[in-house]
Write a structure and sequence with these properties.
Elements (H helix, E strand, L loop, with lengths): L3 E7 L2 E6 L2 H11 L6 H28 L4 E7 L2 E6 L6 H30 L7 H4 L5 H19 L7 H11 L4 H25 L3 H27 L4 H4 L6 E3 L4 H10 L4 E5 L6 E6 H9 L12 E2 L5 E3 L4 H11 L3 E6 L2 E7 H12 L11
Helix pairs in contact: 1-2, 2-3, 2-5, 3-5, 3-6, 6-7, 7-8, 10-11
Length: 371
């Protein structure tokens, strides 16, 4: 996620903080500091977001249990986000992963409840809400107890993509396919988010209205992504590869590559050994352009290319949704496509997008000849 910095690692998962997180710290210093001062307000916010991290860690560890890699956990002013490399499509897996986050908060609330009750039994009786604003161990413990309860209640609202919405989709998924379950969950989530947004506007809770808007947009986007994957799942890599892409010889220079790129619309060129035909790497238009600007016209293309070892690979018969996962996981724009041990060409994000455009218009891609 852009504008995020890594601050640590938990169970092999990168923990990141978005730069805008500083805004919530400043807000907390003003609103939660009280008589104890701004530093106490910052401590309260940090404690609150520790609960958020543990919540997301619950989701992440459950996903890793099912063999789903987790990219990172990022803290934002509106909460935390655990980015999985892929979303589970099996209902039971999604159900467990969705419930794992709130379960962490239930456990934490169970730990804090006797602590709060034990301390309040020996002190003056203040209302629970009043205690949350009192600086000190009791006030902080009470605040965190109510925060855990609030996180469970809010996240279990069946508004997709909140945890409750994912639980709802998982339950529907036991009786229908993943795409249809997603569409039902998205539609219900839209209705609930609109209601939540209107409630926030009427009661003057603008932050709640903003969260509702985020839920509506995020749910709609994930619904579209699932629909797209269902379309791409039936298409093989061989069908999306361009039939007319040309390759560069490893003997070519940057100047020769630039000349070819000016005459061709393709943004990436495979670099092959002229004798064995072995795939050596990929020359990109950006890399060639930068080399030209630095005067490396006569430099061999092998010196500026992305080497084959760094290019993710996929089988010729793999589906396009698998290809999309590979590209996303490797943060790459291009895949090397193989038929067994034989290199067959490159598949780019542009190829996948173009194929999806054909399919979304009700047309099937033409079966292209293989190399």
């Amino acid at each position: 996620m852009r504008w995020s910095i890594k601050v640590g690692q938990l169970f092999g998962i990168d923990l990141k903080v978005h730069l805008t997180f500083a805004l919530i710290l400043a807000w907390g210093a003003v609103n939660y500091g009280g008589s104890a001062g701004p530093l106490y307000g910052v401590i309260v916010v940090m404690a609150l977001f520790t609960l958020v991290v543990l919540h997301e860690l619950g989701h992440s560890l459950a996903a890793m249990w099912y063999g789903i890699p987790v990219k990172d956990i990022t803290l934002l002013p509106i909460g935390g986000v655990a980015r999985l490399e892929r979303m589970p499509e099996k209902p039971m897996q999604e159900l467990v992963i969705a419930l794992a986050g709130p379960a962490v908060n239930v456990v934490l609330a169970g730990i804090l409840l006797p602590v709060v009750l034990g301390i309040t039994a020996t002190q003056s009786t203040l209302s629970l809400m009043r205690l949350t604003t009192e600086p000190g161990i009791l006030g902080l413990s009470t605040f965190l107890l109510l925060a855990n309860i609030s996180l469970v209640v809010f996240n279990m609202i069946p508004a997709f993509p909140l945890d409750g919405g994912r639980v709802f989709r998982a339950l529907i998924g036991f009786f229908t396919n993943h795409q249809k379950a997603t569409q039902i969950a998205v539609n219900v989530g839209r209705v609930l988010s609109i209601g939540l947004g209107l409630f926030g506007i009427v009661t003057g809770q603008i932050f709640m209205a903003f969260i509702a808007f985020f839920i509506f947009i995020a749910g709609s986007q994930e619904g579209q992504a699932v629909a797209a994957r269902s379309i791409l799942r039936d298409i093989q890599a061989r069908q999306a590869m361009s039939a007319h892409n040309v390759a560069l010889s490893s003997d070519a220079t940057v100047g020769q590559a630039a000349s070819m790129m000016l005459r061709s619309p393709q943004p990436n060129f495979a670099v092959l050994d002229p004798i064995s035909g072995q795939f050596l790497g990929v020359a990109t238009s950006r890399g060639v352009s930068q080399a030209m600007q630095s005067g490396q016209w006569h430099t061999r293309i092998t010196e500026i290319m992305h080497h084959a070892g760094n290019i993710p690979k996929i089988a010729l018969t793999s589906s396009l949704d698998e290809a999309q996962d590979k590209l996303s996981g490797a943060s790459s724009q291009v895949l090397a496509v193989y038929d067994g041990l034989h290199f067959k060409g490159l598949l780019t994000t542009g190829d996948i997008y173009r194929t999806f455009q054909f399919l979304s218009q009700g047309r099937r891609p033409v079966q292209r000849p293989t190399m």
